[in-house]
TrEMBL record:
Domain of life of the source: Bacteria
Keywords, comma-separated and alphabetical: Membrane, Transmembrane, Transmembrane helix
Pfam families reported in the protein's UniProt record: YbbR
Transmembrane helix is among the record's keywords: yes
PANTHER family: CDAA REGULATORY PROTEIN CDAR
Segments passing through the bilayer: 5-22
Name of the featured protein: YbbR family protein
Amino acid sequence: MRSNWLYMLMACVMSVTMWYMVTGQERVETLIEVRVEFKGMPAGLIVRDGLVKKVSVRLRGPKGLMRSINEASLTYAVDLSTLKKGTSIVPVVVEKLPITRAFEVVEVTPSRLVLEVDSVAEREVPVDARVTGTVAPDVVVEGLRFTPAKVRVRGPESVVDALRKLHAEVPPPPADTVGDVLVDVPVVVPELVESTPAQLQVAYRVTIARREVVLSRQVRFDDIQGLRIKVAPAKVSIRAELPRSQASDAEVLKSIEARIELPEDVAPGVLHLPVHTVSPDGVRVDEVVPDTVTVTIQKR
């Protein structure tokens, strides 16, 4: 009997404490966000506009209990099973919010959802691919090919019916790429529209735009102390190809030289030596005329 009185006393104390927490504390307002989940969407329909991820709820209640609210666990379920094509207004029902009675719901934003509902449509749409973005100087993308030529799209009827052609945006080729390139590129579709397949296989070839130049150059060599060196002919003609943007660059052209290498044990006499060229990266020398010169060496 004594123990029962003890339990009754503890229950009374706890009840008074809870009553004080709910009614006796300072009442404050706070704003929380409640995640929205949609369920029961009828087959063959799709919501084109009006869906929200969360609603804002202004609450009033005891200050002490406000700290106990865990927004991450709050979810409001919206049943869409009665939707029909067109505009549907779905009110946010306060009584169905996951809020305990210890709090008063002051305001819900939005208080209703205005949903634009459309039929789901499918059809084939032609597609093309194009290179977008900035292509590096002198880089030429040619022979662009892609498969398939059409994709099947699925989405809101009003959006699908308006589609005439879709595009796949091919990024510029990576730096220093030359030759054949094969990439998978996503098809760009409007919001709520799906494409099958979702990607195109795109093939293209990368080349460098080049220009041919013909230059007259003095044949250069390293002087050797005590010897007089004469080269005939003193100049040669160099035919070279270089990137188009460099063909008019005076500094680049100036750096293309013609040289001969004298033997380390060179002695007075006559030599016939090949002409070598020195050029910056990207320059291709196709011909030197003449490619051999006569070198006369005399003592000073």
